[in-house]
Amino acid sequence: MQIVILKDAAAVAEYGAQIFIDQINRKSDSVLGLATGSTPVALYQELIKANQANKVSFKQVTSFNLDEYLGLDGDHAQSYRFFMNEQLFNHVDIDKNNTFVPPGDAQNPITACKMYENKISQSGGVDVQLLGIGRNGHIGFNEPSSSLASRTRVKTLTKETVEDNARFFAEGEFQPHLSITMGIGTILEAKKVVLLATGENKADAIRDMCEGAVSAVCPASALQFHQDAVVVIDEAAASKLVNAELYKHIESENQKLQQYLAELPN
Ligand code: F6R
């Protein structure tokens, strides 16, 4: 795991966005894995800015979102399809026909999950997957006890996740307790994974993910098995890491190495 500790949420968003911009500029038809929630919003703002400044184009990009509430269609204001349109797709030059979110209104959700997996494979697989992390260590909607080999499937949300997300729903409004989510096995197949976390309320989850045992108790700990996982966090989210100074040292050495390699004659 590459653990990058930055001073604040703005720096986290910029760093994360640059990874996506570099990826698309290297491979214009990249396949991106995308996430919803509060954390990626600032990164999406950076991508929109870069697109509007002609620093990156999404014209040939394909995207797959991690998850969707089961029971909400894409026009519902709390659906993740709606969120993605509002927060990113409506503001960049992406072809919406190439953006995929698990169908929350699927007649047969089990078949829909299989079709989603097939679609990812047919696209050549995800080049870079963006992730947030729940306070309980979930990634996507893979809650604690999820199989670390799981595939896209219907998943029950924990009470904690339902409570955390209640802020987005009006009082009395139907709030789904089920979701369709990519599995942890699906996520681990992405060629690169970028997980962002900010704020003190993520500090326990970040410690368990990076320094705890690999365990279904903290689903994100499965990323310890990924050969190219980058964890980008602010000081607050890093505040419970025992080895924070080591990660900062490694990162500063990495920067020097990158600089040296960039200056090598061709
Ligand atoms: C969203 C998702 C979730 C969130 C996580 C953190 O697509 O997959 O795992 O990333 O719940 O959410 P925020 O960023 O709102 O703290």
From TrEMBL:
SUPFAM superfamilies: NagB/RpiA/CoA transferase-like. The active site is at D67 (proton acceptor), N136 (for ring-opening step), H138 (proton acceptor), E143 (for ring-opening step). GO terms for biological process: carbohydrate metabolic process; glucosamine catabolic process; N-acetylglucosamine catabolic process; N-acetylneuraminate catabolic process. Homohexamer. It comes from Pseudoalteromonas piratica. Residues 9-229 form the Glucosamine/galactosamine-6-phosphate isomerase domain. One of its GO terms (cellular component) is cytoplasm. GO terms for molecular function: glucosamine-6-phosphate deaminase activity; identical protein binding. InterPro entries: Glc/Gal-6P_isomerase, Glucosamine6P_isomerase, Glucosamine6P_isomerase_CS, NagB/RpiA_transferase-like. Its EC number is 3.5.99.6. Transmembrane segments: none annotated. This is Glucosamine-6-phosphate deaminase. It catalyses: alpha-D-glucosamine 6-phosphate + H2O = beta-D-fructose 6-phosphate + NH4(+). Pathway: Amino-sugar metabolism; N-acetylneuraminate degradation; D-fructose 6-phosphate from N-acetylneuraminate: step 5/5. Keywords: Allosteric enzyme, Carbohydrate metabolism, Hydrolase. Belongs to the glucosamine/galactosamine-6-phosphate isomerase family. NagB subfamily. Catalyzes the reversible isomerization-deamination of glucosamine 6-phosphate (GlcN6P) to form fructose 6-phosphate (Fru6P) and ammonium ion.
